[in-house]
């Protein structure tokens, strides 16, 4: 890795707390570190190269106080990259050895439609009837957040309820709906 003459001054300034020069140094180190990582570990992908470079820069930051300002910067940084990169490559190899390729596996089971509540043993007519018996706030909360799948902030705007009130109404609505559908409380008693 070719070293620019000003890197040593910038790293010394970084040790003294100069954040601007430190930022410039890190930005200038990125391209040569990427090249060095690709050269040292030619079989790894671009994402792994970026991981190694980022780990190197983090380790450089943690080791900043260890840098001897009379020595060149490039060997110091490359030494850090060697340790961090080897650790990363080793960890990825261990993970890869335990993984199994599943490209041929379907994304879903295909056995049941996840939106078919009847297939899940839910009597849709009974659920709609039970929903109609709920207090207005609980019913609106369930219709917007659970059935309508709206985010809380959007459901809050639609219902006119605060997010906190909407959460409470949704929780109470679920309990009331469960009780109406099963005839039991949450503890299993009738």
Q: Would you mind describing this structure in some detail?
A:
By secondary structure, this protein is mainly alpha-helical. It has two domains: 7-98, Rna Polymerase Sigma Factor, Chain: A, CATH 1.10.1740.10; 124-182, Winged helix-like DNA-binding domain superfamily/Winged helix DNA-binding domain (Arc Repressor Mutant, subunit A), CATH 1.10.10. The protein has helices at residues 7-15, 19-40, 46-62, 73-98, 124-132, 136-147, 152-159, 163-182. Helix 1 crosses helix 2 (19-40), helix 3 crosses helix 4 (73-98) and helix 6 packs antiparallel against helix 7. The longest helix is centred in the middle third of the chain and has 26 residues, at 73-98. The protein starts with 6 loop residues before the first helix and ends in an 8-residue tail after the last helix. The mean pLDDT is 82.
Can you summarize this structure?
By secondary structure, this protein is mainly α. Helices cover 65% and strands 0% of the residues.
Descriptive tags:
Arc Repressor Mutant, subunit A; Rna Polymerase Sigma Factor, Chain: A; 65% helix; elongated; 2 domains; 190 residues; mainly alpha
What topology does this entry show?
Elements (H helix, E strand, L loop, with lengths): L6 H9 L3 H22 L5 H17 L10 H26 L25 H9 L3 H12 L4 H8 L3 H20 L8
Helix pairs in contact: 1-2, 2-3, 3-4, 6-7, 6-8
């Amino acid at each position: 890795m070719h070293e620019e003459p000003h890197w040593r001054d910038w790293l010394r300034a970084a040790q003294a707390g100069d954040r601007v020069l430190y930022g410039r140094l890190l930005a200038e180190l990125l391209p040569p570190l990427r090249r060095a990582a690709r050269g040292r570990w030619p079989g790894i992908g671009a994402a792994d190269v970026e991981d190694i470079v980022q780990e190197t820069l983090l380790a450089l930051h943690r080791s900043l106080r260890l840098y001897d300002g009379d020595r060149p910067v490039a060997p110091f940084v490359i030494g850090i990259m060697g340790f961090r990169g080897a650790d990363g490559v080793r960890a990825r190899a261990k993970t890869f050895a335990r993984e199994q390729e599943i490209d041929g596996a379907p994304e879903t089971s295909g056995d049941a439609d996840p939106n078919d509540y009847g297939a899940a043993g839910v009597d849709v007519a009974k659920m709609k009837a039970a929903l109609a018996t709920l207090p207005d706030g609980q019913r609106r909360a369930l219709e917007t957040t659970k059935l309508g799948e709206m985010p809380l902030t959007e459901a809050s705007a639609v219902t006119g309820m605060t997010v906190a009130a909407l959460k409470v109404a949704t929780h109470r609505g679920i309990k009331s709906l469960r009780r109406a559908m099963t005839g039991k409380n949450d503890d299993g008693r009738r």
